[in-house]
Amino acid sequence: MHTATIINGKEVAAQLRRDIAGMVRARAEQGRMCPGLAVILVGEDAASKVYVRSKIKACEEAGFLSRSFRLAADTSQQVLLALIDELNEDPQIHGILVQLPLPDHMHVPAVVERIVPAKDVDGFHPYNLGRLAAKSPILRPCTPYGCMRLLDAYGISPMGKNAVIVGASNIVGRPAALELLLRGATVTVCHVKTRDLQAELARADIVLVAIGSPGFIKAEWLKPGATVIDVGINRLASGKLVGDVDFESARDKVAAITPVPGGVGPMTIACLLQNTLEACEALDV
Ligand code: GUN
């Protein structure tokens, strides 16, 4: 029976992290600063705590300076903005990451826009998104960037292909559309209002899904030979982690697919390190 190539994000990410650690050592030998990342977590979101811990651990393993800030859920936006102002001025800090989601009383655009674009290692600031839209990216959103690096690592070119994105979030779907457009794909973005998702998927050579709904995308909907990038990370009641695509049935139909866990997730963190190193190199001239 036909089985898909399983895209090993864990391995590609580990290689990228080794390369980054090597560049940090080379900087140290030249007497240059190590990259510094500040991570801010507001509140007690369980998934966010796990992600923040992994980001800090990855920083330390790559030889970065990491500083972590835990703020209570009822912290005022003013206090958060004052912390960002301080970090914007701190010469040891090259990247500032505010983990999302934020508590409801905070206004995400106001917080994101307070970070100076040169330290916006999440790539969420309108300046950085605008640069990506205008075909000259500087710091780019980590998850879509990680997806593109996975395609590159497996020699899968989006050029001229029909790419269908499912989910139009600010963090993944929208910037992923810009990344795929940049690489020459014909891009369709589907979302909750899309009338006929199955008809869109039937034409898709590349499918990128980020909706947060376990096993939502069925193998029957996919075009034989497609490449599937599954950004979903969903924890079932049993404790098992699964993606947004029904992996076990899809793997018999498509050409290549990312697993969950071990697909896109590790690439997000590796690209955060890449962005922080790039921010450091741009700031520490
Ligand atoms: N929440 C979910 N994904 C992300 C991410 O990539 N960055 C931040 N800051 N928050 C997130």
TrEMBL record:
Please list the reactions this protein catalyses: (6R)-5,10-methylene-5,6,7,8-tetrahydrofolate + NADP(+) = (6R)-5,10-methenyltetrahydrofolate + NADPH; (6R)-5,10-methenyltetrahydrofolate + H2O = (6R)-10-formyltetrahydrofolate + H(+)
Q: Any idea where the Tetrahydrofolate dehydrogenase/cyclohydrolase NAD(P)-binding domain is?
A: 141-281
This protein's pathway reads: One-carbon metabolism; tetrahydrofolate interconversion
Gene Ontology terms: biological process: L-histidine biosynthetic process; methionine biosynthetic process; purine nucleotide biosynthetic process; tetrahydrofolate interconversion
Q: Which CDD domains match?
A: NAD_bind_m-THF_DH_Cyclohyd
Tell me which SUPFAM superfamilies the record gives.
Answer: Aminoacid dehydrogenase-like, N-terminal domain, NAD(P)-binding Rossmann-fold domains
Quaternary arrangement and interactors, per the entry? Homodimer.
Q: What does this protein do?
A: Catalyzes the oxidation of 5,10-methylenetetrahydrofolate to 5,10-methenyltetrahydrofolate and then the hydrolysis of 5,10-methenyltetrahydrofolate to 10-formyltetrahydrofolate.
Q: What is this protein called?
A: Bifunctional protein FolD
State the organism named in the record.
Marinobacter manganoxydans MnI7-9
